[in-house]
TrEMBL record:
Protein name as annotated: DUF4270 domain-containing protein
InterPro entries linked: DUF4270
Native source species: Chitinophaga flava
Pfam families found in the cross-reference section: DUF4270 (PF14092)
Length: 446
C-alpha cells in the first residue's frame, strides 16, 4: 500500500516513511478519550508499540455509469433545441414544448384593417453546443394535446411528450450568432395568421380568455430541422418568447401594429431529449439495462444530467481498514476527479458545478455532500480537476448497517445542470493517467 506514516516515536526518515513527534502528540491527546475501540486505552501503550498517522491513496473504488429513466426539465427558463452528435454519449435530439397565452384585448376596426404576417420571436441566451458558423435549422409545430403535469407530478421530464401536427407552421434556416444576435424571427403560416387576426379583431370566444384559447391552440413544439448539427438555448420567459401577429390600419397614414401571444405558464415549458447511443460506449445503456461498470465502457464513467446519465462511485473495502490495528481513526478523506484527457477541449465543455451526492442501492439521492472545488488549467487542460472532502461520509459509512450503506453519485446540480449538454468523462483506477483518486489520512495504533 502506497502510504506515508507519521509516528509519535522519534523523528527519522527512511524511504517513503516519515516519522514526526509533535503532530502525533497533539492528535493522540485530542482523540484518545473519544475514539478508542472497545477494550482499548492509551494507558496500555508500551514503549515498543507505535501509533502512526498514515496517508494512503491506494484504497480501491468501484465505478459505474447509471441511466435514470427521466430527469425534470420543466420551468428552467431555458428553451433548448437542436441535434448534437457525441462520440462518447451518442446523438441527442432536443425538442421543446410550451404554451401561449391570449393577447390583451385589442380594438381592431373591422373596416380598414388587414393582416400582415405572423412570426415567432426567440432570443438566444448565448449558449451553443456545436458550431455556430454553420446554418441552423428549426421547425415549429402546433401541439394538439393539452400540455400539463401528470397526476401527482409537479414536473415535466426529458422523456415527456405531447402530440403535434405533422406539418410545420414555420421553418427557419440561417446563421445564428448566439452571443451577438438579440433575437431571431421565424415566419409562421399565413393561413394561421389570417385566422388569428380575424379572431382577435372579432373578439372570438376561442381567443378570450386564455383558458379558451388553450383549448383552441394548446401550444407549440420547436424541433431541429434537416441538417441540424448543434444545440442552442433560447430564453423561455413570457417577455422573450412570443408569437407576434402584425397587422395594419388604413388611417390617413397607414399604421403598422401588432399583438403578442406571449409564452404562458413558464412551469409547463420543458425540453424533450431523444438519445441514440448506437456506436458509443454507452450503446448498451438502454431499455432494462440501467448500469454499466467502468470495465464495460473503456475503464471510464460518464456524467451528463440532461440525458439522465450519472457516475456512481463506491468504496467497498472502507470498513476493512478498521482491521489494520487495535485503534483506527479516519482524520481526512479527499476525493479527486479528473476529466479524462482528450474528452474536452476547454473548460466550458465540462460542468462548472459537479454535485457529489449520497445514494442508496436504488441510486436514489438521499443527501448532497457538496459541489466540489473546481481547479481549472486553462493553458494545458492537464491539471483540471474536482476535489471533495468526504471525511464525514467515510466516518458514517464505517458504522453503517446494510440499510444505511450509501454510495456516491457525481451529477450536475439542480436545474442549471439540465440546461446544457456539458458532460464529464472520468477514468477509473485502471487508467494510468488522470485516474480518479481517493486520499485517506488516518490514525493507526498497532
Amino acid at each position: 500500500m502506497n502510504a506515508t506514516f507519521f509516528s509519535h516515536k522519534g523523528a527519522k526518515c527512511s524511504g517513503g516513511i516519515i516519522y514526526v513527534t509533535t503532530v502525533m502528540a497533539l492528535l493522540v491527546t485530542v482523540l484518545c478519550s473519544s475514539c478508542q475501540k472497545t477494550g482499548f486505552a492509551y494507558d496500555n501503550v508500551v514503549d515498543n508499540q507505535q501509533t502512526d498517522y498514515i496517508l494512503t491513496d491506494t484504497l480501491s473504488l468501484t465505478m459505474k455509469t447509471i441511466q435514470y429513466d427521466s430527469v425534470p426539465t420543466s420551468g428552467s427558463g431555458i428553451l433548448l433545441t437542436g441535434v448534437k452528435a457525441d462520440s462518447h454519449f451518442g446523438t441527442s435530439t432536443i425538442n421543446s414544448f410550451f404554451q401561449l397565452q391570449a393577447p390583451s384585448s385589442t380594438d381592431i376596426p373591422v373596416n380598414g384593417s388587414g393582416f400582415d404576417s405572423l412570426r415567432l420571436l426567440m432570443r438566444p441566451t448565448g449558449y451553443i453546443a456545436g458550431d455556430s458558423t454553420i446554418p441552423q435549422s428549426l421547425q415549429v409545430y402546433r401541439v394538439t394535446q393539452s400540455i400539463q403535469f401528470a397526476k401527482t407530478f409537479f414536473y415535466l421530464y426529458n422523456n415527456s411528450d405531447f402530440t403535434a401536427e405533422s406539418t410545420p407552421l414555420g421553418t427557419f434556416t440561417g446563421i445564428i450568432r448566439p452571443k451577438t444576435d438579440k433575437s431571431i424571427s421565424i415566419k409562421m403560416s399565413d393561413a394561421l395568421g389570417a385566422q388569428l387576426f380575424a379572431m382577435v379583431r372579432d373578439k372570438s370566444p376561442d381567443i378570450f380568455p386564455t383558458s379558451s384559447f388553450l383549448n383552441f391552440f394548446p401550444g407549440l413544439k420547436i424541433t431541429p430541422g434537416p441538417g441540424s448539427a448543434s444545440v442552442m438555448a433560447f430564453q423561455a420567459i413570457d417577455t422573450s418568447l412570443t408569437m407576434r401577429l402584425y397587422y395594419h390600419i388604413n388611417e390617413l397614414i397607414p399604421t403598422a401594429r401588432y399583438v403578442d401571444f406571449k409564452m404562458n405558464a413558464s412551469e409547463l415549458q420543458f425540453n424533450q431529449v431523444l438519445s441514440n447511443r448506437t456506436g458509443s460506449p454507452l450503446e448498451k445503456l438502454q431499455g432494462p439495462v440501467k448500469e454499466l461498470p467502468s470495465a464495460a465502457t473503456g475503464n471510464m464513467t460518464f456524467t451528463q444530467s440532461l440525458t439522465g446519465v450519472a457516475t456512481r462511485i463506491d468504496i467497498p473495502f472502507l470498513k476493512n481498514m478498521q482491521q489494520l490495528g487495535q485503534f483506527f481513526k479516519i482524520m481526512k478523506v479527499v476525493l479527486t476527479v479528473y476529466p479524462a484527457t482528450g474528452t474536452y477541449t476547454n473548460s466550458s465543455q465540462i460542468p462548472s458545478n459537479l454535485a457529489l451526492c449520497q445514494v442508496d442501492k436504488t441510486n436514489t439521492v438521499t443527501d448532497t455532500i457538496g459541489y466540489g472545488n473546481l481547479s481549472i488549467d486553462n493553458q494545458y487542460n492537464e491539471n483540471t480537476y474536482y476535489s471533495y472532502d468526504i471525511t464525514n461520509y467515510c466516518n458514517t459509512q464505517l458504522s453503517a448497517d446494510l440499510a444505511g450503506t450509501r454510495g456516491l453519485l457525481l451529477t450536475t446540480p439542480g436545474g442549471a445542470g439540465r440546461n446544457t449538454l456539458n458532460r464529464l468523462i472520468a477514468n477509473d483506477q485502471q487508467i494510468a493517467k488522470k485516474k480518479i483518486k481517493v486520499q485517506v489520512y488516518y490514525l493507526l495504533y498497532k
